[in-house]
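User: I'm writing a tutorial on reading structure tokens. Could you give me a worked example: one chain, its sequence, then its tokens, then a sentence or two explaining what the tokens reveal?
Assistant: Sure. Here is the example chain.
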Amino acid sequence: MAVHSVDHAVNAERIAPAEPGHGGGAPTAEGAAATASGPGARSRATCSGTTTATCQGQRFVASITGLTTAASTLATAMTVTNASVVSSASIVHCQTAGYGGTGVPVVVNITPGTGTVAFAIQNVSTGAALNATVPVACVVF
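And here are its predicted structure tokens:
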């Protein structure tokens, strides 16, 4: 028996509604472009800082600089100001995105507030400290 894997997130971006109120539809050229740059592509804000930064928009990448968090240790919290879409009732998903140093950073304690998102980085490595900028990609729902 053959097993097939499907990336539903990518495929969902390529499907456009057939008609208002009917959901579903056929793949479109514009939907395919959403996975690349150009017309239909979604924008993402970027920002950086050591403990605070400002990024506006539903999707953003906050790069945390200067972390040297020891193995098995929780780093100081990072607060991102994002007044455009975040409220205390928001659901926010964050994860590391392309870390290139030693250690293993994991985003923990994500807390949305009025115009802010706070989170911390936990180094889950048992033997190496963090030693590079930690990019954290977030989406506000």
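What the tokens reveal: Confidence is low (pLDDT under 50) at residues 1-40. The first helix runs from residue 8 to 14.
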